[in-house]
Amino acid sequence: MISTDGLTRYTLSLLAAVLTIVVMYFGRSLIVIGMFSGILAFLLLPMARGLERWMPRWLGSLLATSAAVLVVLGLFFMMGWQLSRFGKDLPHLQERFAAKGIEVLRWVEDHSDFSRREQVQWFNAHLSEITSWGGKAALKVFTSTGSVLTAMLPLPVFIFLLLLMRDRFRTFFGKLGSTREGAVLDVMVSISVLSRKYVRGILTGALIFGTLASTGFLILGLKYAVLLGFVIAILNIIPYVGALIGALLPVFLAIITKDSMLYAVGALAVCLVVQFLDNNFITPKVVGSSVSINPLASLGVLLGFGSLWGVAGLVLAIPITGMVKVVCDSIPSLHAWGYLLGEEIETPKEKRLSLAQLRWKSRPSATGKKE
């Protein structure tokens, strides 16, 4: 029989969870902007500090924010250039796809009792449903993407202000005092350090993955190699499922655009080799094992955040979960939740940073220098 205290704690926890989800849904616009701004401000903080050695803080923060904007615009320009090429070649790709479809119909007719007319009838019967579903899905994706891009316009202003006013936030957390886990400011500092390491590792890993995949596709002579490589790199952030979906794209394109099946096999080989390098070398070294998220948790948060925030939720799901795991690993009473979210990878050379280690490293020594 559940005690009264246990039932009360359960009721309060359930109420807090429900209210949190309600706030996340109805306040999604402001929360998404705040999360993106905070993540990018964490990443730009070392650059801003370096620039402020030779110039005022406001100018250093402005230059760091401007550099991030230029990088993002450059990425959008590159992807837009690749997409424009894809749009010009779309009629030719449709013709190639139709020709390949006829070959498939002929092969099925030769190896089964399913005649070509029956295949066409079956396909036409289901074509309207497929087209309707695909059109709705595409419309939803483009609508959500447009909404996200519109909402991202104030981001540079938020990032600049967060960098400019970081001392005020430090003072605020210092005034909150201490908890049984330690000083709130120490906890926030450790979370910011490890979160920056995690997010920077994800972006660096995606850049390396996209570069390797693009190089492999260029060697094969596939069209839109750069676009394919970096689309796969973005999808690879989703563990296991993202890599599987990403591998289908170059294989499908190779089948349509090339006459030999060897190109499709080569495209699949490139994906497998790059995935092997990412799993065994890039991710353990760049991201680190202390913030790895297991596949079950990844799929769960992707579905949850995607339902709450749409495309922005899919982009933020893994970084937010990684930060939550950082929090859980930093606070002793939450270690169990960090273990539940994580995927333990044995890497003897990897040194995990705990809250106590970070606090010790930041303690001044007798000489006045930080240890």
Describe the protein's architecture and organization.
- It is a single chain.
- The protein has 371 residues and is mainly alpha-helical.
- It has a domain at 179-371.
- The protein is built from 15 helices and two strands.
- It has helices at 4-26, 28-51, 57-88, 90-111, 116-151, 155-164, 166-175, 184-220, 225-235, 241-257, 262-287, 295-309, 311-330, 335-341, 355-361; strands at residues 178-179, 182-183.
- A two-stranded antiparallel ribbon has the order 1-2.
- A hairpin with a 2-residue loop joins β1 (178-179) and β2.
- The chain is globular and about 75 Å long.
- The model is unreliable at 345-371 (pLDDT under 50).
Low-confidence blocks of residues: 345-371
Strand numbers in spatial order across the main sheet: 1-2
Approximate helicity band: over 70%
How can the largest sheet be summarized?
A: 2 strands, antiparallel
Total count of strands: 2
The sequence of SSEs as H and E is: HHHHHHHEEHHHHHHHH
Strand content: under 5%
Count of alpha and pi helical runs: 15
What best-fitting shape do the alpha-carbon axes yield?
globular
What integer value in Å does the Rg equal? 25 Å
Q: What's the rounded overall pLDDT mean?
A: 75
Structural class: mainly alpha
N- to C-terminal distance: 53 Å
